[in-house]
């Protein structure tokens, strides 16, 4: 997920916490991922003043995946038939605040500010209508909201950490708008100029220019203003450092009492039978071939998944047998899915499909920052209906500090998965990582093959994949 995410018209991008019981309220520790307190930067200005170019230049200068650009153009209201016909005649006022759905914008910004997933509408200027699809935004640390009315609504301004107003002379704005609307929106020059003098220019004085009064920074010349760009970039970098510091401090706080407190009753360590110890011996043997390692690890992970499914909800079911008898049995209460924590969790996937051949799977990539050791979310794909599944298996080969597991569980919770429906399945885990996880999420079940030292090198995936 390198670079930035730009959300605007025609962009194409592909929770509810579990009810707390009296027994878990006192035990619960707070965990907040870095995106739980989103920083919002607003960039307003006249049409063609360089807002989008400035936003993109700032993101390119930072070159970080945690900064997202959201265009306020996505929130144009759906048009009724009469307004739609007026729009095609270039007679509809898109440059009035009445054209923007501010209520939906505020709702989505509040969701993002709270660390939740937000569905962003997709507006087509060629069709003058909202499309049926939406775009998901999730887990940005900093969001740049750009548009002519970014600083207009007091409810939006209240959510912002920095407010910027772009200035440019009218001739420059008009020339930029002509080029953009011809290239990106399928407009003709006559219609563009008609709209400019009928709506854009009068509304600039009436609605847009007054927004400069609430701005923290007024940026003349847009992207050519290197001083302003440096100021904004430094502000964003400072915010990211603060979020990283708070996140690492929260992880450290979760360690307190880890060595003295007993493990949660919901932590299930596989019984070390002779068969299990025999397979572990082969897996740990330095002389074991790659083929044998994969064969026995797949066998062992199938056992882990079987144990995890013992914690999935079942319902009674009476079925007819070939002998014309009725068997009183059990079947899954609902769908069971799995989320693979890349790349280690992919080593458990073959074992998973041995047990559930048609299991729906999602993927999440969480990597530790080389400099700080902080876990960072890089990639996420989940089944669309995952919040409705009765059990979600979270698969990872190893867990040491627990930072990645914490973040992965938080991602699932943010997408509507109840914590008591999550079962973490891992081949090996350290006591500290398990303590961190179950202290923040006491409802989840953890199935572990082996308990190991708190800090163990991730060797399983390297041997399984041969690299």
From TrEMBL:
Keywords: ATP-binding, Kinase, Nucleotide-binding, Transferase. Residues 37-184 form the AAA+ ATPase domain. The keyword Phosphoprotein does not apply. Pfam families: PRK, UPRTase. It is an enzyme of class 2 (transferase). InterPro entries: AAA+_ATPase, P-loop_NTPase, PRK/URK, PRTase-like, PRTase_dom, Uridine_kinase-like. GO terms for biological process: pyrimidine-containing compound salvage. Its EC number is 2.7.1.48. Gene3D superfamilies: 3.40.50.2020, P-loop containing nucleotide triphosphate hydrolases. The keyword Cell membrane does not apply. One of its GO terms (molecular function) is uridine kinase activity. Pathway: Pyrimidine metabolism; UMP biosynthesis via salvage pathway; UMP from uridine: step 1/1; Pyrimidine metabolism; CTP biosynthesis via salvage pathway; CTP from cytidine: step 1/3. It catalyses: cytidine + ATP = CMP + ADP + H(+); uridine + ATP = UMP + ADP + H(+). Belongs to the uridine kinase family. NCBIfam families: PRK05480.1, udk. This is Uridine kinase.
